[in-house]
Amino acid sequence: MNKKDVMLLTGAGQISMAIARRMGYGMKIVIGDKKLENALRISDTMNKAGFDTVVSEMDLSSCESIFAFIAKAQQYGEIAMLVNAAGVSPSQASIETILRVDLYGTAVLLEEVGKVIKPGGVGVTISSQSGHRMPALTPEKDEQLAMVPTEELLSLDMLQPQNIRDTLHAYQMAKRCNVKRVMAESVKWGRRCARINSISPGIIVTPLALDEFNGPRGDFYKNMFAKCPAGRPGTADEVANVAALLMSPQGAFITGADFLVDGGATASYFYGPLKPETKIE
Ligand SMILES: NC(=O)c1ccc[n+]([C@@H]2O[C@H](COP(=O)([O-])OP(=O)(O)OC[C@H]3O[C@@H](n4cnc5c(N)ncnc54)[C@H](O)[C@@H]3O)[C@@H](O)[C@H]2O)c1
Questions:
Q1: Could you tell me if the CB of 240 is within 6 A of ligand 1?
Q2: 44 CA distance to ligand 1 centroid (A)?
Q3: In this structure, is residue 1 part of a structural domain?
Q4: In this structure, what CATH number is given to the domain that contains residue 170?
């Protein structure tokens, strides 16, 4: 088999595809998703547009599945890029599933890819603006989210059922953890001359967001983009524009960082018309 540099792409959605189309030319793109049909759909679109992709069924909530996915990808060549956009939203899943997929699975993936990433490699993981509107945690809790061994994460007191209000709170904790984990992992990735960052998008029109618009918090989300400075939801391509900077040589000094791409929704939430009466969201 002709070896190429490999891009690992998890979560075969609009955001990951937009990033892969900017950065994945000339690479072997290994697309992992729990729903194989999603991976096949994106693979087909990309292969017909001149990219070289293969699919693999993978479940981000399972460390065994993550190990197998990485091992399969390595058969094609060295892993030089990671794009992690697999995830479930507050309207799609239970508290337990959100914590397993978005929090634990992402932590495992970042750590395992960080052990094998090619020198000079880069990664980006998709967090969310949602984590930015949750009040600050204590420095001790932040450090736990950043540093405890992955297999102990879900046993942390702050993540036990009595301490998680609802699926939105679980999602916010997961996304806060993503950002903290990226900071801690960037130190390890740096030892391999590799970089890892996260992007926290606002409302981006994708199937996941459409589930939110049609879910119990639909009006809340529609109000959010109507009253943010941009006055509209974003597109996957606008997220990918930022990923392209982070993953290209122009972003060589950027690692361990999180980038909010939300049309100003977070700014409006704190200091504008989206400011809630009581800050519980
Ligand atoms: N769309 C938005 O408005 C928005 C905003 C902020 C953050 N995000 C984040 O962006 C990421 C991608 O979301 P998207 O909007 O492109 O959604 P999407 O629904 O288009 O894609 C998400 C993909 O993840 C896959 N997936 C779900 N659970 C999985 C698991 N356990 N293992 C492997 N794959 C799994 C789904 O099958 C789906 O193909 C998510 O982490 C989401 O939280 C999205």
A1: no
A2: 19
A3: no
A4: 3.40.50.720
